[in-house]
Amino acid sequence: MRWMTRIKNAIRGAITGWKGSGFDFSNWFGRTFWGIDNSTLATNETIFSVITRLSNSLAMLPLKLYKNYDLAVNQAADVLINSPNPNMTSFEFIRLLETVRNQTGNSYALIGRDIRGQVERLTPLDPAYVEPVIETESGELWYQVIGNNGTYYFHNLDMLHFKHIIGAGGLKGINPIKVLTNTNDFDRAVREFSLKEMQSAPNSFILKYGANVDEKKRQQVIEDFKRFYRDNGGILFQEPGVEIDPIERKFIAADIFTSERITRSRVANVFNIPVHMLNDSEGQSYSSMEQMMREFVQLTLMPIVRQYEQEFNRKLLTPAERQAGFYFKFNVNALLRGDTAAQSDYYTKAIRSGWMKPNEVRQLEDLPPEPEGNKLWISGDLYPMSMDPTQRKGVSKGENGTKE
């Protein structure tokens, strides 16, 4: 029965990850959170699409800790980049935070610290149980969290909080799905109408008899027609003197496509995402995929990325570390790379113009550094920037002995 013991210990270890000094959220383990908003997310493919794209795009970006432009590592970086908590990878952690931020307007993660004050765990919390409050005497921001054994209060430096825009005097981000309430209701009504039209479309016919029939006979004819249609799999037999004409119904009207485009446009506006990212290319003109991605990165992702970076820097790094030059940074260039030809031309010009080192290019391409790759070069053809220009080949000496 060792395998049973091993499973029990694994479950106990997972639940322990939701407990810590001063908090206990183990009763949340295995629960389904955010039921109301999840129903909207699960039944509206447009909103599902935009939130999936935003959360996946952010989670896939390379995240590193730097010290004055050089890669660095400390305990906070190891936790954030490799294992935020016993139950999640970094990708899952960031994707969950971004998904919840777009579902509810706010996402939270509790920062667990060891006895030395170092970050050791990042635990995502259900926004329904978290409320930002201002302490009246100090005026500082705290977070009220309803846990298993009561209500807890955490200082803002111990809580990661990512949010949409905030209204005047507010502390919480505005829920974008609530902003789209009217759009969702309209879209749902159009879909229900179309579904009813589609379901009723195959069952409508015009029957023409060569003679007048009374009301009783008419009802018998209708019932006999329906029975024959049902029992014979939709095949009808047209008797002499009887004409059967189906009523043509267009259950997908042209207006439905217009309403879907309106819905996509409104969702794109609320989430600040280019409408072409929702597969709506009408009226769009781009010469390359790189231009499309550049618009997405600059107008949509950069504000989100900047919020995450500043939250990580302020709350996961100490003041001494920040003063020493440490900072977290997402590499958005991973989304801006062009095709192979354009990227090769970019690297070639960067190296030959002397503003990028070969090893920096190799690092972007996940290649190992070379011993001579940490120098800046300039075409002439390719001399180290530090080299005396008079030592370059092809420079002739003047009368005074100097090279010209």
Describe the structure concisely for a colleague.
It contains 13 helices and 15 strands. By secondary structure, the chain is of the alpha+beta class. Among the domains are: 158 residues, no CATH class; 42 residues; 65 residues, no CATH class.
Features:
13 helices, three-stranded antiparallel β-sheet, alpha+beta, flat, about 400 residues
Q: Any overview of this molecule?
A:
With 404 residues, the protein is of the alpha+beta class. It is built from 13 helices and 15 strands. Helices cover 43% and strands 17% of the residues. Among the domains are: 16-173, no CATH class; 205-246; 340-404, no CATH class. The strands form 6 sheets. It has a 3-stranded antiparallel sheet with strand order 4-3-13. A 3-stranded antiparallel sheet has the order 6-5-10. A 3-stranded antiparallel sheet has the order 7-8-9, with no helix packed on it. It is flat. The chain has helices spanning 2-16, 35-43, 45-60, 75-82, 90-104, 176-179, 181-200, 215-231, 254-270, 289-316, 319-323, 340-352, 358-364; strands at 19-20, 23-24, 63-67, 70-72, 106-113, 119-125, 130-134, 141-146, 151-155, 159-163, 205-209, 242-246, 326-330, 377-378, 383-384. The longest helix is centred in the C-terminal third of the chain and has 28 residues, at 289-316.
Walk across the major sheet and give the strand order.
4-3-13
Class inferred from helices and paired strands? alpha+beta
Total beta-strand segments: 15
Shape: flat
How many separate helices?
13
Q: How would you characterize the largest beta sheet?
A: 3 strands, antiparallel
The run of helices and strands is HEEHHEEHHEEEEEEHHEHEHHHEHHEE
N- to C-terminal distance: 87 Å
Average pLDDT metric: 77
Instruction: Name the poorly predicted regions.
Output: 6-17, 28-38
What amount of the residues lies in strands? Answer: 15-25%
What share of residues is helical? 40-55%
Alpha carbon gyration radius: 32 Å
Keywords: Plasmid
Protein name: Portal protein
Region (Disordered): 378-404
InterPro entries: Phage/GTA_portal, Portal_HK97
